[in-house]
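Lab notebook, bench 4. Continuing the backlog of folding jobs that were queued last week. Each job is logged with the same field layout so the records can be merged later without manual cleanup. Today's entry covers OsmC family peroxiredoxin, a 75-residue chain. Filled in by technician R.K.

JOB TYPE: sequence-to-structure
TARGET: OsmC family peroxiredoxin
LENGTH: 75
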Amino acid sequence: MTAHFREEGSVLRGDAMAFCDGFEVEIQIESDEPLSTIRELVRLARQMCFTEVALTNNTPITVTAKLNGNPLERD
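JOB STATUS: finished
OUTPUT FIELD FOLLOWS
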């Protein structure tokens, strides 16, 4: 897997932004199984990959922060 990330702006200025421009996944299989069997295996594996599903779909994210065990209030 290769991930493509980049940053823009400055943390000190308060305008830093992080971006993910994409991922490249290469699946390598060594097998004597028929091509149709391998294609089905890859299809099912991708269908069941939680990470791929989360990255390619609109997945809600909930973020909480705590300081010394207490919720960190937003300004």
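OBSERVATION: Strands lie at 2-8, 17-24, 66-67, 70-71.
SIGNED: R.K.
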